[in-house]
Amino acid sequence: MKAFVYGGPGLKSVEDRPKPEIKEPGDAIVKMVKTTICGTDLHILKGDVATCAPGRILGHEGVGIVDSVGAGVTAFKSGDRVLISCISSCGKCEYCRRGMFSHCTTGGWILGNEIDGTQAEYVRTPHADTSLYPIPEGADEEALVMLSDILPTGFECGVLNGKVEPGSTVAIVGSGPIGLAALLTAQLYSPAQIIMIDLDDNRLEVARQFGATQTINSADGKAAESVKKLTGGRGVDTAIEAVGVPATFLLCQDLVGPGGIIANIGVHGQKVDLHMERLWSQNIAITTRLVDTVTTPMLLKTVQSKKIDPTRLITHRFKLDRILDAYDTFGRAAETKALKVIIEM
To answer: Is the pTM above the cut of 0.85?
Structure first.
């Protein structure tokens, strides 16, 4: 089968690999139909994710058709159309019982990280009964690809951790796909202001179309000053970091008001300064999280009822044999205006 393979920092290729086989009773082999590229995949290619070894097939998102199942799988059978969660969960360990699927002792974020992932013609998915979701009849499969990771990540790590609530003020630093996912799901809670901050005017225009109340281009270094003016000098109740570089986390520290929350979503590959000399007295909270996908069933219903339309995030489509072009397009988003790219088998 064809597969996209990480060869080490800066190295990537399309290779022929053997079709995966059942290894454990809870496994399913899924024939991929559609997948996508995540910003986390770009972090892996930069060498930011130490757990992902060279030779790994990347990808942790997508929809497909069950090809075969292990003896222990009871919820799915061959031919079922399924959504693949980016997080594999056994449902039984202490962390899973606490709803922290991302820290499952035999799962978590392993697809496209510790085991081969979804950017291939077939993928082996462990703990299939609790890590796959049946696709409803007539559902838009491209929309559901966004439910593998990006929508629950923006919602859980940004909106829920940031305690967005009616009438609150929110700043989202980063108008890329994950920041826009946070923007879409934040509106479920009716905040008074959602201020989107980015360096890319095109992405800020998209953010306005998606419901941002204000947008700020931070290129002039005055984003914090602008946010203070928009919030009566107070700063925001929730500052969501959706990039994963030191500068954006530092900016969030400048944006958050007394009693506020900094909710980190971004994947960080290097240390970041924490200005406790300013923040120690401000009653703020800082949250971190790897998506648990506990909200996927709820978000699936929300998408099905048309309350959220994640297909608006999709800008480009490629076949698997052009996945190198897809990575190039996604990696040059400022030039190509790419948000999410769909890879079709």
So the answer is: yes
Distance CA 118, CA 41 (A): 12
Q: Which helix (H) or strand (E) holds 125?
A: strand 122-125
Tell me the Ramachandran region of residue 323: left when phi exceeds 0, alpha when psi lies from -120 to 50, beta otherwise.
Answer: alpha
Q: 236-241 and 256-264 as β-strands: parallel, antiparallel, unpaired?
A: parallel
List pLDDT tens digits, range 267-316. 898 899 999 999 999 999 999 999 999 999 999 999 999 999 999 999 99
Instruction: Output the six-digit token pair for 87.
Output: 């997080």
Euclidean distance between CA atoms 110 and 21, whole angstroms: 17
* Cα–Cα distance measured from residue 328 to residue 338, given in angstroms and rounded to the nearest whole number: 10
* Contact status, residue 20 vs residue 123, Cβ threshold 8 Å: yes
Interacting residues of 80 by C-beta distance below 8 A, sequence separation 6+: 65, 66, 134
| Token duo for residue 345 | 């088998």
Ramachandran assignment for 283, one of left (phi > 0), alpha (psi -120 to 50 degrees), beta (any other): left
SS3 labels along 68-105? EECCCCCCCCCCCEEEECCCECCCCCHHHHCCCHHHCC
User: Do residues 206 and 332 touch, judged by C-beta distance below 8 A?
Assistant: no
pLDDT tens by residue, 146-157: 999 999 999 999
Using the Cα atoms of residue 188, residue 191, residue 197 and residue 201 in order, give the sign of their dihedral: positive
- Which of 44, 41, 30 lies closest to 323, judged by CA? 41
Paired tokens of 124: 């082996």
